Structure formats: structure tokens, C-alpha cells
């Protein structure tokens, strides 16, 4: 077989790749120059202090005590509440910090430690983690995008360079990781790698292992667990021989089960001294005590709470049960569809739907959790640019109150502007007459993605809706920044923002479910070796 | 895409608002106060602050205009005695004024890029995303964007053969910042040959004296004199004072941080000789001031003869003369003289940068910005641009010394270089060769092995400065080593490329003109007379 006829051979457009990636990294550093959460706000500070504190704890206390309340480890003060991999990561950084600047991780004495050089050190740790996990993951997935599959159109949004840069410029993750200060890039990067192994390589065992690692970095990755589980389970049935069906299935399933179990055992081994230890860790990871939501979140419960005070009617336990059942109901259609009418193209949509269902209905949701929905949506963007772009804008808007609190209003506006500009540049490369406001024009976006005409009335309607949605976001942003709310409603604007984005998310939830259900059944073929 | 790129760059500028700014911030604040509160006959006499007004009158007028907007932001910044005042509103106003005035630069970049047929967008992008301007104007704080905007307008008008307009723009520029006097000879030679002699000869050597048009010369003179009159007119009584402010010779040969020019190499050689001779047992009288000590001082060389301003001016002028003569000859041909004009301007700017007295490192932008325009118009220019923009912008790094700016300046430069290196070479490498020739690992396109290695050396230098220097504990014993290494390393590159570009210009002959990208330029040539 010659190289030319090799079906796996494909070209990668590299024109704007290197400058674009450097630019995306530059934007990260521009945001990083701004204050982090809890900047000079004693006594509790913010997420930055939490991360620093974890370094302090992991470096100075024995490993079994990390999740326990001891004299050295006060769990009331930013106790560790993420799974072991986060703790190991903190430990590693803590070691570096101790070598670089021992004062910053001194037990007890370092609480509230803030200095410019330490900020720089912490920013670098996020940056390097981002480059190592997230940027590489995005790059791999985007290279895969350009492989033209059967009967699929090659569009500008599937060019490797443009799609990579567009995804790296997504404001939400930049603002939260490099501005607000968190390490979402690690878990999301691992998640991207797992997705890459499922979508592109079709190596299910590796995908499982990497996803387990992501899960062990942040328990929030459970939002993505269902689609992975359903998809991999269904794949165990594919290609059954007529005889020995059961053994075939067990064989396939065992491979994955062993992968999961061994990953978990290796990660949890240092805590595995007794069952009690593990229960304690789990207790830390899933704190039932902390109410159904904190601050103002754009999910259904927060929305309902405006009209019916949930906390006065239900205890935390009944609330948790309600959340669980609602989440299960909401994610059922998408999962069932995935199981019975499997199609590889549905995988990403299923991820969107299930994580959105979790975001809207589950217990103890943070506003930052929207990132778990946004990243799959960003993966879906090349196929459905208009709606996904709209969703991504709304998702970063929904975090506005948090960002204002952190003093990140300039980066918020700036990164969103850059993102919009880059999107229109992509459109311009496909159609020369696309101007700077063309991203609001649904029919133009549709024409770039596919040649066949859709009903133009619907697209016009969508464009108008997008325009008014943007207008609403614009005025709400202006209001949140400049208008002083009336004294009896101090939380007026955060509440308005979260309700406004919640309405969007519910509608998007319906839309993406419809999208998934409308994709036909198509069995992913097991890889046939060509000689 | 023009609007999008401008918007993206502007957003990046807005990001820089709360970052570090240098003493130039206070300089400009003080000028706002001076021009706002005093009558014009006192502007150049006031010395309440140590940062006295030392720009030409038009710039003072500009500050006067700005001060009337400034009072809506924070009237306190206009108090003369309010030294080092930096309220949030003051910072916001000053930064926004730079960003707003940059519109001139963006428009000028657009008008320049419109002259080019192949690589129009590229030139626009290279000009607008110029890292030096981003660093110097929007972090360090200055108004260079506006000034280079005027220069670009002048260039674009010159290429379109609108000589009077071009001269007007340049006269305005001169009255905004007098450092541009260094490139004035190019304008004089070019306007004389191309505008005052109405006939262009094909052979290039012969000057048709009979076609000298005295009316054109008078038109030119009137327009230039009018601008100077407007600018200096109100200050006629105080001219000596202004001159003494504009040309202070009390400063040293090199700036606190040596600009990467010939004198950096000279100073370095002096230091080396001093150390070597001391080691060899020969007594050297110890010099008083360390050159890199931060404050501006006069400095006597220990071994090599000390340099006086006269010497530097003589050297600068002498080094310009061959290029100017060549320009005179090249101007004879009507088709390509626009390009020769810009090339000569680059060379003269380099001459002044390399041999000038008390050169600031920022002056390298005067080389890089015209070069960005030339980068798509010839393979040698393209290569020169790639090298000079990398070296030159790198040499600006010490301006932004705070540690938290390290990564920002690094990625600014990397982005800009990546744009250059991933686009400019492919205008010259035929597409067939792109695939047939196996590209070696990490080899940069269009430039040779040694040049690639030199550029990677910059990366090594960067790592040394920011990590190893502190890690090895050298910051206690040799605190100024990184600065010195940067300027010497960059100086070698600058001097080398200046020589090679000079050689290219002097041996340039019209029969071998590359035709890439000049197609569109011919359109304007027909307008000549």
C-alpha cells in the first residue's frame, strides 16, 4: 500500500499554529498579571490561599493525616477537599516551594503569605500545568479534527491551527485558572486526553486509565463519568461473535474493570491503611453539610430559590435526594440514547448533555463548574459553531459576579473581546465578506459550515435571539460594574446574572438534547488492520 | 480582518493599564502640568520637577491639548507641585491617551499596507503588532506610536509621490520629536533629486541639471517653513533656551543601559582590556563612575580613548554619506526610488543608532518599523527584518525589568517572531520547495545555520538572565552582568546586519530588482510629474 492511499494519512494546516498558540499563552500571562481570588483579604483569603495552604500541609504532615483534623492540620481553614491526585500535585509543588522560598510553606507561620515573587511562582505552576496537560490535549484533539471523515465537510473551523487557537482562547478557563487561581486545566486536560483516546485513537483502556486520573484529580469530573461509562460499556458489546457472546463481553469488560481498579488502587494506596481512612477522604470530597449551592449559581435550584426558599422547606438530606433523582432523570434521555443508538459522533454531545444536566440539577454546584460543560461544548464548536459559540459566551458571562469580586473585570471584557475577534477572523478566512459583527449572523455561520440550505426564517430568528441575548449580557455587565444596587437587595446583580444565564442554559440543554437525538444510529467499527 | 486585528491589539494594550510604568510616566504628567498652568513663555524655563520639558514645541502643544481632557479625569494631576502623583484616574487617563493616540499609528499602518499587493495584510499585521511599541508605549510609557504613525504617513505619501504631503508629515514629526533629525538627510536628498529635478534619467548616474525646478523647491521650502513657523513661532524670543533644552550634551556617551550599538562594543572592549591589563600587572587609573550604575553620568574610558560628542557626530555623518550618494543615483529611476528611499532611511537610522551620542535603546524602533514595511518587498529585506526585529525587540527587554513582566515580554516577542517567521519566508520560498526539501529540525526558514544559532543564543541569554544568574549567585558579585551581556550580544547582531544591509544597498543595481510585491507600487509611479 502506498502512502498516498493510506486512509489515515492527513495534512495538518500549520499556518497560524505557532503564532496563535503563543498568542493564547500571552493572553494567559496578561490575565495572570491581575489579582487572584482573596488578594489581600484576610482572614480567609481565597482559592489562592487554599492552594498554598495545601502545599504547606502536604509538605509538613504525614500522608495519612492530610484529610484528618489534627493539631497540625486544621480542616476548618481550607482543609483539603479534593481527591489524592490534587494532594500529590500540591505536594510536588510544595517541595519546589520549600526549596525556592521556605517561608511560603512554613507550617502555621505561612498563613496568608503573599508576596509578588510568590504570586509569580504560583502563576508559573498553573501555567506549566496548563501547557503540559491542557494545551497538549487541545492540540491533539484539533489535529484529529482535520482528518476528513467519511462524507464530512472540511470547514474552516476544522483547520487544526484555527480550532486549536480558538479553543485555547476560550475566556472561561483562562479567567478561572490564571486569574481567579485554580488548577482546572489539569483535570480538564486529562479529560481532553481521555476524550482524545476515545474519539481519535479508539484505545479504550488508555482512555479509561486517563479518565480515572482526571477523576482522581477533581471529583467534579464525575459530571463526565456517565457518558464515558455508557459509551465504553456499549462498546463491549460490539463485534460479538455468534458463539460465546457472554464470554466475549466479560472479556472486554474485564479489561476496562481491571484498568479502573488498578488505577484507583495505585492512586489511593497511601491512604488504604484502613477503610476508615478512605471513608474520611470521601467525607471530605462530598460534604453534604455545605448546602445545595453556594453564592449565586446559574442552576435550576438557585433559580427556584428566588421564588421558594428551598432551605426552609427541605433538609439537606432530602434536598440531596431530590437533586440526585432530578439529575438522573435529566441525564437519562441522553445516556439511554447513547446506549441504544450508539454513534461516535454522539459522544461529545452526550458529554455536554450529561454535564449540563449535572450542572443544572445536582447538589453543591459552584459557578466555576460550568467549565466542565464548556470544554465539551468547545470541542463541539467545529461542528456547530453558532450555537456553541453562543453557549461559550454565556458560560463565561455566568461567572461574572465571581470575576468582579476578584477584580478581574478588565480581563473578563478583554478576553471575551479577543475571543469574539478571533472567531470573526476565522469566519473571515472562510468568507471574505464576513465583517466584525458577522458572528451574530446565524445564516452566514451556517453557510460556512455546510453548503446545504436550512430554513432561513429559523436562522434569522436565531440571529435576532443571539443579538438580544448579547445585548442583555452587555447591559447586565454594565449594571454589575457601575450601578450600585439598592441597599435592601445587595445581591441584585449577581442574582440577575445567574437567572439570566440559567434561562440560557435550560434552553441550551433542550437544544443539545435535540441535537443528540437527531443523530442517527451508527456503529463505530472496530479497527480492522489493513495490511 | 483589519478591524479585528486592531481590536485585538488594542485589547492587549488595555490589559497593560495597571502594570508597571517607568519614570517617563511622571515626565509626561509633569509636562501636562507645565503646559496647563504656565504661560507659553515659561514652558521651557520651568524646572519645578527634574523632568523638564525637552521635546520640541509641537509635542508641548499636544500635551497642552491633552491637559484639557485630563482635568475631567483628575484635576489634581495638573498641579505643578504634585510630583510623582499617580492616582488611579491619572494612570487611566495617561494610558488611555496613549491607546487613543495609537489610532493614528493604526491608520498609518493601513495606509502603508494598502500600497502593497502581495502581503498587504501581513505588513499591516507586522506593523500593528510591533512588540517594541507595545512594550515601550504601553508598559514603559511613551507616545512613540503617534510619532511613528506620522513617519509611516510620510513614507506612504512619499511612495505615492505626494512629495509635499510627505514633507509636511515629516516636518510635523520633527517638531514632535527632534531625534528624527537623524533621518532628515534622507528626506533632503530624496526630495531634491526626485521632486526638484523633474526628469528622471534611466542610466542612474547622470544628473539632468537642466531640469531643476525652482518652483518645486520653493513649494517645498514654504510648506516646511510654515510647519516650523507654526511650531516655533510663539517661542521666537526663547529659541536659545529651547535649543539648550533640546540638545543637552551633559549626558554620557551611553545611556544607563547601553543601547546595543558600536559604543556598547567599545565600552565592552574597554572593560575587557582594563581587566586583562590589571591581571597582567599594568596599573590602570581607576575610573570614578560605573557605566551601568543607573544614573546618567559622564564616563571616562580606562584604556581606550574617551569619545567626545564631535567624534560621534562625525562618525554618524560619515557613515551616512555613501548611502546618501547611492540614494541620489538610485533616485534617478522613477520606478523603484520609493523602495530605495525607505532602504536608505533604514540605513541612516541604523547609522545614527550605531554611532550616535547617548542613544536610547528605544531608537531601534526607527530601524524596525520601516523595515517591517520593507519585509515583503525583497528577500534581503525580509531576512534583515526577521533578524533585526528579533534582536532589536530583545534588546528592549531590560527596559521592563520587574520580574512579573518577564513572561509577558517573552511571549509578546515569541508571538511577534512566530508571526514573522511563519509568514515572511514563504513569500520568497517557492511553494514547491517547501515540501521537497526536507526541513531540518528546529531550523528557522530563510536564515542560515549561524543566524539560527545566534537567535537561539538569545533564548539561552534569556534563561541565563532570569534563572541562572540568580541561581549561581552572580547577582551579588556581578549585578550588571546580564545587562552588559544583553547589550553586547545584541550589538554584535545589530552591527553585523547593519554592515550586510549597507553592502546590499550599495551594490544594489536596478537590473536585478526583485519583482515580488512591487506590482502595486508601479501604479503610483505614473503620477510622477
From TrEMBL, chain A:
Major localization class: endoplasmic reticulum
Q: Which residues cross the membrane?
A: 121-143, 164-183, 189-215, 246-269, 347-366, 416-437, 457-483, 495-514
In terms of InterPro entries, this protein maps to: Glyco_trans_ALG6/ALG8
Identify the pathway.
Protein modification; protein glycosylation
Q: What UniProt keywords are attached to this protein's entry?
A: Endoplasmic reticulum, Glycosyltransferase, Membrane, Transferase, Transmembrane, Transmembrane helix
Q: Where in the cell is it found?
A: Endoplasmic reticulum membrane
Signal peptide positions (record) = none
Topological category with respect to the lipid bilayer: Multi-pass membrane protein
Recorded E.C. number(s)?
A: 2.4.1.-
Q: What general EC class does the enzyme of this chain belong to?
A: transferase
Which superkingdom? Answer: Eukaryota
The similarity annotation says: Belongs to the ALG6/ALG8 glucosyltransferase family.
| Protein's recorded name | Alpha-1,3-glucosyltransferase
Originating organism: Loxostege sticticalis (Beet webworm moth)
UniProtKB/TrEMBL annotation, chain B:
- Superkingdom of the organism of origin: Eukaryota
Q: Main localization of the protein? A: endoplasmic reticulum
Q: What class of enzyme is it?
A: transferase
Q: Which InterPro entries match?
A: Glyco_trans_ALG6/ALG8
Q: Where are the transmembrane segments?
A: 5-21, 92-109, 121-141, 147-172, 179-197, 217-236, 307-328, 340-357, 364-386, 406-429, 480-499
Question: What is the recorded membrane topology of this protein?
Answer: Multi-pass membrane protein
**Keyword terms, alphabetized:** Endoplasmic reticulum, Glycosyltransferase, Membrane, Transferase, Transmembrane, Transmembrane helix
* EC numbers for this chain: 2.4.1.-
Alphabetical list of Pfam families matching this protein:
Alg6_Alg8
Keyword Membrane tagged: yes
Q: Does the keyword Membrane apply?
A: yes
Q: In which pathway does it act?
A: Protein modification; protein glycosylation
- Where is the protein found, in the record's own terms? Endoplasmic reticulum membrane
Family that this chain belongs to: Belongs to the ALG6/ALG8 glucosyltransferase family.
Q: What is this protein called?
A: Alpha-1,3-glucosyltransferase
| Species | Loxostege sticticalis (Beet webworm moth)
